[in-house]
Amino acid sequence: MPLKQIIYSSPDDWPALSGRLAGRRNPESKVRDVVRDILADVRERGDVALADYTRRFDCPGFTASRQRVPKTAITKALKAIPAEDAAILAEAIANVRAFHERQRENSWLTTAPDGTILGQLVLPVDRVGLYVPGGQGGETPLVSSLIMNAVPARVAGVREIAVVSPPRADGTLNPYILATAALLDIDEVHLSGSAWAVAALAYGTKTIRPCDVIAGPGNIYVATAKSLLVGEVGIDMVAGPSEIAVLADASADPAWLAADLLSQAEHDPLAACVLATPDTKLAKAVTAELAAQLKLLPRGEIAAKSLADWGVLALTPDLATAADMVNRLAPEHLELAVAEPWALLPSIRHAGAIFMGHHCPEPVGDYFAGPNHVLPTLGTARFSSALSVQTFCKKSSIVAASPAFVGAHGAKIARLARLEGLEAHARSVECRIPKKKKR
Asked: Is it the case that residue 17 has pLDDT exceeding 80?
């Protein structure tokens, strides 16, 4: 198995790892001009442009009149899937909702002795657009993506959620996506994909009203469209290819570790898998397991390319050094497959999500446990966080200065304004300073 092996003994060895993974960065630059033209086209032609692109890339017989999925079709889809699957989806939604309920932030006010009131008003945005990838022509519906994006928006209090997803060749959407929308109480679903769907969510068309925030994963065209729209709308993040780092010691099961690495490698040829361990025997056993398990995977070709191009086996002198390496990597997913994960946790500073111990593989978080699986990639976990309720909220400051406050501090405020050459600022405060009574 062509996992590239490196020795990481100290920070001096960081270039060997960073250089190995550098080629995964900024792939959107290759399609930026194409996406920019698509955005402009949709902004100008609206639904007509959406129908043209959909006919060309997804459904040859598509017309603009089929753009929105009827509400009755969403309701029927929930009855069309097996009841046991609907129950699993409902339980996953409940778990994700319970976790995100704890993220709620309250508005607050504080009153000073002079009567001045200061505070913060926390409100949801009015309307959110969610992109849901079709998944292999609509045959592998990414229902988890819809759950992970819609639930925190609902918990935030967003009133309107519009979903876009590319139709299958026959002009339908996979019933599992529609059924999940029904469980999430979403009745606005549109048949549109790629950059043109993102453009419609941002600019609006006759059928799709514009949104305040756009969230959801997608291919390079979707990611590039979102990045170009930053400033016109809010977005969740510009996510890169998926990645996992596994920090393991001799107590780990090599077969389990191989399965965990492959769970990311099968995502995408650009997915990165890093195993860091001080145990050479474990490293050798994991390498053998990767080769054996690859042969059994339906997406083995994708996983093999991912491992060959971006897989890394880092041998470290100890767990502390491995933790240092992980912090520099700041991975999207981090598994602590060690005997005492809670003892190691204080050493971890940068990771999108941390999976603790031998019985907590990354897919537990992807689908069911509750935390969000929309995570920062490509080292951005150094400064950013998972998608959350806050992604769909905005905060307004409240300032209610009392006459006593202006009287006591108005001259200071005016002085600061004049230091910046803003005379009108100074005068707008000074005119409110109570005049001293003449004796």
From this structure: yes
> Looking at this protein, which amino acid is placed at residue 43?
R
Is residue 241 a contact partner of residue 270, using CB atoms and an 8 Å limit?
yes
> Are β-strands 213-215 and 189-191 bridged in parallel, bridged antiparallel, or unpaired?
unpaired
Q: Which residues contact 397 (CB under 8 A, 6 or more apart)?
A: 118, 119, 120, 121
* Contact status, residue 273 vs residue 308, Cβ threshold 8 Å: no
Q: Is the pLDDT of residue 29 over 80?
A: no
Count Cβ atoms within 10 A of the Cβ of residue 15 and give its class: 0-12 exposed, 13-18 middle, 19 or more buried: exposed
Residues acting as catalytic residues:
332-333
What long-range pairs does 419-426 form, CB within 8 A, spacing at least 24?
Answer: none
Q: Kindly state the tokens that stand for 400.
A: 């209610």
Q: In terms of DSSP bridges, do strands 127-131 and 160-165 run parallel, antiparallel, or are they unpaired?
A: parallel
pLDDT at residue 203 in the model: 98
- Report pTM: 0.92
Contacts of 350 (CB under 8 A, 6+ apart): 326, 327, 328, 329, 330, 381, 382
Write down all domains in the chain, each with its CATH number in brackets.
4-27+240-383 (3.40.50.1980), 31-235 (3.40.50.1980), 403-439 (no CATH)
